[in-house]
Amino acid sequence: MTKWQKNAAYALAVYALMVAVFRYSSGGQGWGTALLLALVTTPLALWMGWLRSRLNEQAAEWGRRRFRPWPEERRR
Q1: Three-state SS across the chain?
Q2: What is the predicted pLDDT for the residue at 1?
Q3: Which is deepest, 3, 12, 17, 19, by most CB within 10 Å?
Q4: pLDDT of the residue at 72
Q5: CB pairs under 8 A, 24+ apart, for 5-11?
Q6: What tens digit of pLDDT does each residue of 65-75 get?
Q7: Distance CA 71, CA 50 (A)
């Protein structure tokens, strides 16, 4: 699978999961409302996942570039 196909499959799976969550939650939304709510929340969930991975990458890079030792590693 190409990267585009993987991303599309992942987005479709998240959308289907969101529809099921909204449809069968304790509030019991109708199918139309569940489909619309999932359409709104899926891009938000995908963006939050991307943001988390991006922040983790930046934190790892910052940890590699740190020039001062951590306080626990300092000898007094």
Answers
A1: CCHHHHHHHHHHHHHHHHHHHHHHCCCCCCHHHHHHHHHHHHHHHHHHHHHHHHHHHHHHHHHHHCCCCCHHHCCC
A2: 87
A3: 19
A4: 72
A5: 10/46, 11/42, 11/46
A6: 666 666 776 66
A7: 31
